[in-house]
């Protein structure tokens, strides 16, 4: 199975179809409810719903998904029964296989119930109609890449005693997106130095985004949060809350982070933990949705 532990949960939706072709007189018997085996459509509906819930038992590498909704609908045509299966879940992977399985098993159920009446039955056109959800639905396109800076606040990195792996993790996480890292600096855990660096990157370098890493914990030298608040015009608490919630589901220590996010002018500053794993978890939770902030800051709102 694919490891989805670093994926955030989002609303996932999918619709699939299957078509059972039959003689016109067979379709009429379904419509009239005179099929000897009973109510064809309601039986097929229940079969499709049950199949969607058991998809991971049928398809070897599918994840078991807690489904929130399954619906199976029918369209009786002159010489065919069209089946549409719709599935929803709030989870880490898509539900297209659940929708396809529901439509397929509903079609097989109809075939089984009608085969004594019609030797010309045929199942076809099994296909995915649409799917939604996941990070791709929230990707942003920009005329020009966003300009980002990475600020590593660490006494040991600045002194050359430790390699900067957290800053490297930020750069790596930003690579798939329309974000250009224009500055990457390592500075000591000194509040005045951090404040001066943030002001310069906001006011002179005109960065769209600044990601800090380090100085968000409870230690006596952890002052990045205070420095960020000192230079900020206003905070954006939901950003840090989203990262903490995602991290807490994976490590009980995530609650110890005091990280915040804030605006200075038109620059969004985001505090990230000092550990590479904490950085990766936080950015897994925040990207790409975080990038929409640039449109809001520019006054475009949510529909820009």
Report the β-strand fraction as a percent range.
25-35%
Approximately how much helix is present in the residues? Answer: 25-40%
The major β-sheet equals: 6 strands, mixed
Mean pLDDT: 95
The dominant shape is: elongated
Write the layout of secondary structure elements.
Blueprint: E1 10-21, H1 24-32, H2 40-53, H3 55-58, E2 67-76, E3 80-91, H4 96-114, E4 122-132, E5 146-153, H5 155-158, H6 165-174, E6 179-187, H7 191-204, E7 209-213, H8 224-231, E8 234-235, H9 237-248, E9 261-264, E10 267-272, H10 276-286, H11 293-297
Parallel strand pairs: 5-6, 5-7, 7-10
Antiparallel strand pairs: 1-3, 1-4, 2-3, 8-9, 9-10
Helix pairs in contact: 2-4, 6-10, 7-8, 9-10
Account of the protein in words:
By secondary structure, this protein is an alpha/beta fold. The protein has 2 domains: 10-134, Alpha-Beta Plaits (2-Layer Sandwich), CATH 3.30.70; 139-297, 3-Layer(aba) Sandwich (Molybdenum Cofactor Biosythetic Enzyme, Chain A). The protein is built from 11 helices and 10 strands. A 6-stranded mixed β-sheet has the order 6-5-7-10-9-8, with helices on both faces. It has a 4-stranded antiparallel β-sheet with strand order 2-3-1-4. A hairpin with a 2-residue loop joins strand 9 (261-264) and strand 10. Helix 2 packs antiparallel against helix 4 and helix 6 (165-174) runs parallel beside helix 10 (276-286). The two termini are 37 Å apart. The relative contact order is 0.13. The model has no long low-confidence stretch (mean pLDDT 95).
């Amino acid at each position: 199975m694919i490891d989805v532990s670093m994926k955030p949960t989002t609303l996932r939706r999918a619709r699939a179809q299957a078509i059972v072709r039959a003689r016109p007189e067979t379709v009429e018997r379904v419509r009239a409810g005179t099929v000897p085996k009973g109510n064809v459509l309601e039986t097929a509906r229940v079969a499709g719903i049950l199949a969607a819930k058991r998809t991971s038992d049928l398809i070897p590498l599918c994840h078991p998904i807690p489904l929130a909704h399954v619906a199976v609908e029918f369209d009786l045509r002159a010489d065919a029964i069209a089946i549409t299966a719709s599935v929803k879940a709030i989870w880490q992977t898509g539900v297209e296989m659940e929708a396809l399985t529901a439509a397929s098993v509903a079609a097989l159920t109809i075939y089984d119930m009608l085969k004594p009446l019609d030797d010309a039955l045929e199942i076809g056109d099994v296909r995915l109609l649409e799917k939604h959800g996941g990070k791709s639905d929230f990707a942003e396109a920009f005329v020009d890449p966003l300009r980002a800076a990475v600020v590593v606040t660490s006494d040991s990195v600045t002194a050359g005693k430790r390699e900067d792996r957290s800053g490297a993790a930020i750069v790596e996480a930003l690579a798939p997106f329309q974000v250009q890292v224009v500055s990457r600096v390592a500075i000591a855990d000194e509040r005045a130095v951090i404040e001066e660096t943030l002001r310069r990157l906001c006011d002179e370098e005109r960065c769209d985004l600044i990601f800090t890493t380090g100085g968000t914990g409870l230690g006596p030298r952890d002052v990045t949060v205070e420095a960020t608040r000192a230079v900020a015009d206003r905070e954006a608490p939901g950003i840090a809350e989203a990262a903490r919630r995602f991290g807490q589901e994976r490590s009980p220590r995530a609650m110890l982070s005091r990280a915040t996010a804030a605006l200075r002018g038109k620059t969004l500053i985001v505090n990230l933990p000092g550990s590479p794993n904490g950085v990766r978890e936080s950015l897994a939770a925040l990207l790409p949705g975080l990038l929409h902030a640039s449109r809001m800051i520019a006054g475009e709102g949510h529909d820009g």
